[in-house]
Amino acid sequence: MPFVYLNRALVPEEEAKVSVKDRALLFGDGAYETMRSYSGKFFRFPEHLARLRHTLAGMRLLLPVTDAEITVGALSLIQANRVPDSRLRLTVTGGDMGGEIRLKRSHPPNLIMTAIPCRTPPPETYRDGVGVVVCPWRIPTESPLPGLKTVNRLLHLMAKEDALAAGAWEALFLDQSGALLEGTATNVFLVVDGVLVTPSLAGPLLAGVTRDAVLEVAGASGVSLRESRVDARDFGRASEGFLTSTTLEVLPIRSVDGKPLGEGRPGPVGTRLGEGLRELIRRELGL
Known about the structure:
Mean pLDDT: 97
Low-confidence stretches: none
CATH topology of the largest domain: D-amino Acid Aminotransferase, Chain A, domain 2
Number of domains: 2
Number of helices: 7
């Protein structure tokens, strides 16, 4: 029987419950992080917790649990569930609604962690790359939400579903001026005129732990790189591109809106950085 970590305790999954008055259910008032473990060790767990704390601060939601407690709880959970290569989801909710429809909370938050085997796309997906489409719905630059990893993901789910219906794998968001931002659950990189470019975090998008790791690998390997505005028109100039995320690592882009990106296959920069990222993971975790 799988376990869930709920408010400092391991609980059988079928017994793990929160109230129907929980603010995450009523208002989407909650934050989450997804971590990945390799052979029982989490990659960059502190960085994920730092991003969680950033989201919670932006939501004005206080979690009175230390990072050390969360780390111990996460390790105990993957051990109890016997999933050394896991996809762990950590969710913090706003707790029970106290009666007023306000951002101010009146009850303690709920901390929930679940752990399941990490399932990645099949090998041919990495060998051939994937198709992406540009989402027609623009992200407002003034909104504080894109930079926070909240449980309100309806827009992302809708965009992803439309991408799948179009025969693509991922949808990419643009801001109101036409600048590329991110995917529904990924960060985006292109190689344009020999330079690795990725949208700047000054825009309305989410910082990525794997994004940062790939930038480190690129810098250490001498790849020319730039974090800046990336225009949607740069797709036509790009020789290659790829997506990054915690569970995907580095996933090549084959096409954009049905048109080949570059030569329509994984390129040398993305291939080298994918290998470099895996080596970084092995080195940091001692695998």
